[in-house]
Amino acid sequence: MNDTLHSHEAPIEHPGYGTFIGVWLLLLLLTGCLVGLSHVSQTYAVWGLMTLTPLKAGLVFYYFMHLKYEGPVFKIVILVTLGTLLIFFALLFSDVAFR
Amino acid sequence: MSGHVHRDDLGSRLGMWLFLVTEMVLFGGLFIGYSYMRYRYPAEFHHGGMELNATLGVINTLVLLTSSLTVVLSIVAVQRAEKQRAMALLGTTLGLGLTFLVIKGFEWSAKFHHGLYPNSAHLATLPPGEQVFFGLYFTMTGLHGVHVIAGLSVLSVMLWWVATDRIRQDRYIHLENSGLYWHLVDVIWIFLLPLFYLAA
């Protein structure tokens, strides 16, 4: 039996262990910063939530979830999803603001 | 007979991502609900947040971040045909996931011990804002916990498949997709930590 395999993908260079360990260290550092900010004041904690948390999530998406190495379709799917959530968020708070 | 194996790893990953975005919308809806309730009951959310153990929340964050690392490293190991290392890394991921659940169990037990659980008599005596806070806390961390259990179940199968060479250097899309799911579980927790433990 002569099996032939057809894959739609061109071979790509895979990232090594070091890249991911570096990202992990950065994630730990950002978590430390987030905890530090929360000890300063609640305002700083909220700023940390709105800046460092999306940055951490972005690092996981981009490196650990390999988005960096995927084509534009994947990025568009995620941006459309995040955009949809943002629209819902804006609609809710525009309603709240005019109550 | 000439066997023809058609494989579409790109389509498989795209399908997984489409599933993951439905999960993002599910938790995103809860995050939006949280935002509105926090806006409406800032003092009660602050008081509710003080009741939670931030140290355990941070430890669990470190545990999940590390488990995400070990999953992604296991994929690198499979790509390099380092089977033993891939199995060790996946085993470590399973251990870390279980550690997360045990810590979460201790945390929930402490809350139960203090009469804080859904529909409890003590919870009913608290101000409405705090009832909402704990309602969201149990709903969101509970739903996340269910996802952790689902992720661990899938990763256990992946470990078995690596051991039996069903996942190997030239065929590891199932491990990649399972890893994607586990990373999303990690991302959700990345948001839950500041929402409940740090910035409430």
Give an overview in words:
The complex is a heterodimer of chains A (99) and B (200). With 99 residues, chain A is mainly alpha-helical. In chain A, 74% of the residues lie in helices and 3% in strands. Chain A has 2 domains: 17-65; 69-99. Chain A is built from 3 helices and 1 strand. In chain A, helix 1 (17-40) packs antiparallel against helix 2. The longest helix of chain A is centred in the last third of the chain and has 26 residues, at 72-97. In chain B, 82% of the residues lie in helices and 2% in strands. Chain B has 200 residues and is mainly alpha-helical. The mean pLDDT of chain B is 94. The relative contact order of chain B is 0.17. Chain B contains 7 helices and 1 strand. The termini of chain B are far apart. Classes of the chains: A mainly alpha (99), B mainly alpha (200).
Q: In which range does the helix fraction of chain A lie?
A: over 70%
Radius of gyration of chain A: 20 Å
Shape of chain A: flat
Number of helices of chain B: 7
Provide the succession of SSEs of chain B.
Answer: EHHHHHHH
Number of strands of chain A: 1
Ranges of chain B with pLDDT <50 over ≥5 residues?
none
Sheet-strand content of chain B, in percent, reads under 5%
Number of domains of chain A: 2
What's the total count of β strands of chain B? 1
Mean pLDDT metric of chain A: 88
Class inferred from helices and paired strands of chain A: mainly alpha
Number of helices of chain A: 3
Structural class of chain B: mainly alpha
Strand content of chain A: under 5%
Greatest chain-chain contact: A-B, 52 and 52 residues
Oligomer description? heterodimer
The biggest sheet of chain B, with number of strands, parallel, antiparallel or mixed sense and barrel status, is: none
